[in-house]
Amino acid sequence: MRPQDSPTRETKRLDGRWHFLADPAGAGRAERWFATPLQARDGVEEMPVPASYNDLTTRPDLRDHIGEVWYQREVRIPRGWAGERILLRLESATHRATVWVGETELGSHEGGYLPFDVDLTDHARAGELVRVSVAVDNRLTWQSIPPGVVEDTDAGPRQRYWHDFFNYAGLHRSVWLHSLPQTRIEDITVLPDLDGDTGLVDYAVEHSGQGSVSVQVLDASGAVVASDDGAAGVIRIAGVHPWEVGEGYQYTLRVTLSSDGEVADVYDQRFGVRTVAIEGAQILLNGEPVYLTGFGMHEDHVARGKGYDDASWKLDFELLDWIGANSLRTSHYPYAEDVMDYADAHGILVIDEAPAVGLNMAIGGGIFGGQGYTTFSPDTANEATRANHAQVLTELYQRDKNRPSVIVWSIANEPESDTDASYDYFAPLFAHMRSLDSRRPVGYVNVMLSPYGKDKLAGLCDLYMLNRYYGWYVDSGDLDNAMLHLRDELGQWAQDGKPILMTEYGADTLAGLHSLDGATWSEEYQQDLLEATHAVFDEVEEFVGEHIWNFADFQTTKGIMRVDGNKKGVFTRDRRPKAAAHRVRERWTRIRGRA
Ligand code: GCB
């Protein structure tokens, strides 16, 4: 559960400037950098948290650093926390981290996009000043999610990976110190349902120690509208205000744990009352068909890279609203919890994606060029990779299970999916996701190299999510052929009668490049490609949504396929609209008006 202030819990955010030192020689652990103030060492600088460190200096060696970097700061444990459990939460340390307080190692976490806690209780006293050190490792391996490999080259080690966004690293989201009571609420699950205009809220509370649970449901104004006793039950909300697209109405489940007649713990869990279902080739929200408009996005901003900040995301959400988007995919990793909170609060539908991207050795950055490895083998993506993948799905579910915005789980983006080995790898992961959540649809995002008939994972999916680049990577510059081929392929997928969502389509577009004959890379070509593609979408009955790739231009590795990053944004990296944005806006606001 995310840290919060309540009558029994307190938080202290540790965002701001930390001491920072990269460790290219990998000496920090042996030299026990955690044991003394980092600022005494040569080369230490201040680094903001949250942020990626890569673009915040002028030094290429830091931008392209491979291995651990160290963050350190002192923090005073609030004096009122005597007798409490004291935890440190890191919302995102990319891609793995180890945490020390003073000289004591508290724990490690694998995976760069999901939160974790370490327990300081036995190593820090209320009122004391303690030194917190975090070693953050950006290396991608065959076992990490996403995968990668550090190769020895003539000029030294190089980090390779197969996803098309820069491997930003650091403490990307908030770090919290927080206190919990000794007898406490450990977990809350809320499963809402609708019966006419009555909300049925199935809840379950786990707690430590002896105690009794009572719950109240508060509406958005704070008025108590229902209550119940017991650690599990179903609460009825008469005249319920459902959570809808564009209107993220939320209730609060106030959970109180009492022990020996005293309040031991209180936690406010927000939730929305809505249903998601797939019926035939439709996605139903609250029983009504919904058509998704929006984007695959990235956590990517100038300077701070993947670091979360309220201002940048406020603008991104304003632009989504301006252009008429009702949804987004967290391509290609779980986004910050603050992003998800916004989606919950504003009725934005989210396809929540695991950070499993690049599990496909047939494609390079984007869609070209084999990689010279076999995707699934004992030496590459193997049992240990799958165990990490399953763990990531568990953590993703645990973090986002109560979010009304999340309507679909995406297990992976464009993995190899046309081989028996891919089926063997993925079938248990689909089963795992469904064992965690039997209500939300589950799918994965299919790559163009694995078309209908070749793809072996389709049978595992509740809906089809396709990335297709007709008019860009194939039939480049030839929209007539591109649309014939798109229409033909969609017709094939449609035979199965499942909902089809286009999770990526688009064209690289250099803002300011104009052309009378629709040259590729021009603003006119992006506009023409999107409009032609939309006309085909409108012919397919099984079509339930369109997510343009991408919301905004974003940074990638260097290479001949990219011009200072991927330029498929409908907005530039500094969030100015390209010409196509205005046309997309016309279409999506029209669709929104119909809904
Ligand atoms: C894809 C990938 C995405 C790339 C995009 C592209 O299929 O899913 O990560 O950025 O293509 O622009 O090539």
Description:
With 595 residues, this protein is an alpha+beta fold. It folds into 3 domains: 10-180, Galactose-binding domain-like (Jelly Rolls, Sandwich), CATH 2.60.120.260; 185-274, Immunoglobulins (Immunoglobulin-like); 291-569, Alpha-Beta Barrel (TIM Barrel). It contains 8 helices and 32 strands. Strand 25, helix 2 and strand 26 (327-329) form a beta-alpha-beta unit. Helix 4 (383-400) runs parallel beside helix 5 (420-436) and helix 7 runs parallel beside helix 8. The longest helix has 18 residues, at 383-400. The radius of gyration is 24 Å and the shape is globular. The protein binds (2S,3S,4S,5R)-3,4,5-trihydroxy-6-oxo-oxane-2-carboxylic acid. Residues 164, 332, 366-367, 413-414, 467, 504, 549, 566, 568 line the site of (2S,3S,4S,5R)-3,4,5-trihydroxy-6-oxo-oxane-2-carboxylic acid.
List the helices and strands and how they pair.
Layout: E1 10-13, E2 16-22, E3 45-49, H1 60-63, E4 68-76, E5 85-90, E6 93-94, E7 96-101, E8 104-110, E9 116-119, E10 129-137, E11 148-153, E12 156-161, E13 170-171, E14 175-180, E15 185-195, E16 198-207, E17 212-218, E18 224-229, E19 232-237, E20 251-259, E21 262-271, E22 276-279, E23 282-285, E24 288-289, E25 292-296, H2 310-323, E26 327-329, H3 337-346, E27 349-353, H4 383-400, E28 406-413, H5 420-436, E29 442-446, E30 464-467, H6 479-494, E31 500-504, H7 523-537, E32 543-549, H8 579-594
Parallel strand pairs: 25-26, 25-32, 26-27, 27-28, 28-29, 29-30, 30-31, 31-32
Antiparallel strand pairs: 1-14, 2-3, 2-4, 4-10, 5-9, 5-14, 6-13, 7-8, 7-10, 11-12, 15-16, 16-19, 17-18, 17-20, 20-21, 22-23, 23-24
Bound molecules: (2S,3S,4S,5R)-3,4,5-trihydroxy-6-oxo-oxane-2-carboxylic acid.
(2S,3S,4S,5R)-3,4,5-trihydroxy-6-oxo-oxane-2-carboxylic acid (GCB) is lined by residues 164, 332, 366-367, 413-414, 467, 504, 549, 566, 568.
